[in-house]
Amino acid sequence: MPTFSPLWRNGALALGLLLPGAALAQQPAAPAATPAPAAQAPDTVVAKVNGAPITAGDLAVASDDPALSLPGVDEAQKQGLLVDYMVDLKIGAQAAEKAKIGDNPDFARKLAYFRDKLLLDEYLEREAKKAVTPQAERALYDETVKAMKPEEEVHARHILVDNEAEAKKIAARLKGGEDFAKVAAEVSKDPGSKSEGGDLGWFTKERMVAPFADAAFKLEAGKLSDPVKTQFGWHVIKVEEKRTKPVPSFDEMKEQVEAYLTRKTQQDIITKLRESAKIEKTAAAPVAPKADEKK
């Protein structure tokens, strides 16, 4: 059964506390997924620890934590585990408060750091959502597609052997009418394509080593090559088809477009903030060496 990621490796686990996921692992598997619980108002109290409330909003925050990812666990089960996790977290935090951990200067510095980090993350996420609109995505896609140059692709098969003499014998068999796929399955040394009858699918010229690519792209569709030598051995190539590489659709590119726009928006925000800020580095500030100064 899945367990929580060891989020508390330096915290609760060191105290010997049991992660909820570990408790779950001792139970028999659920016979079927249970219905997801109905949405609750963020301030709905779901548990109390020594009088301190844990709310549905707290669970939502924990649920967004990548360290608490539970792939394969249905939502109702996950929510139950998160309640147990938050209970243990609250117990540990209360114990840390009694131990005056919060009074430690190092802890105060960590708290300030993570507060700044969370503020920045939330700010960048909010601003990126404003900028990454369907119109901006479409405009970037159209601009990118317009700049793409037509690129030729080849769909080819090959048979790989150890030496030229063997390659010549295979070429003779193929020119004599034997089926390429059957011969490839019988003698090819390429484990990646042998079971596919030597089929390499569609590829552009730069994806293959130069001697192989040069030979394949010179051939007409349906033709066989003479033996071709590369660092992998000797090849006999058959070109099945040629085409101009199709432009990927907007739907195929949408995730990449969104990720690029989000990243660029956030980088631009930081750049503008730096330009408008008064930044002073003291003589004590470490300076990273330039690339050409590194040894």
From TrEMBL:
Keywords: Isomerase, Rotamase, Signal. The keyword Isomerase applies. InterPro entries: PPIase_dom_sf, PPIase_PpiC, PPIase_PpiC_CS, PrsA_foldase, Trigger_fact/SurA_dom_sf. The keyword tRNA processing does not apply. It is an enzyme of class 5 (isomerase). It catalyses: [protein]-peptidylproline (omega=180) = [protein]-peptidylproline (omega=0). Its EC number is 5.2.1.8. GO terms for molecular function: peptidyl-prolyl cis-trans isomerase activity. Residues 151-241 form the PpiC domain. Residues 1-25 form the signal peptide. Pfam families: Rotamase_3 (PF13616). It comes from the Bacteria. SUPFAM superfamilies: FKBP-like (SSF54534), Triger factor/SurA peptide-binding domain-like (SSF109998). Belongs to the PpiC/parvulin rotamase family. This is Parvulin-like PPIase.
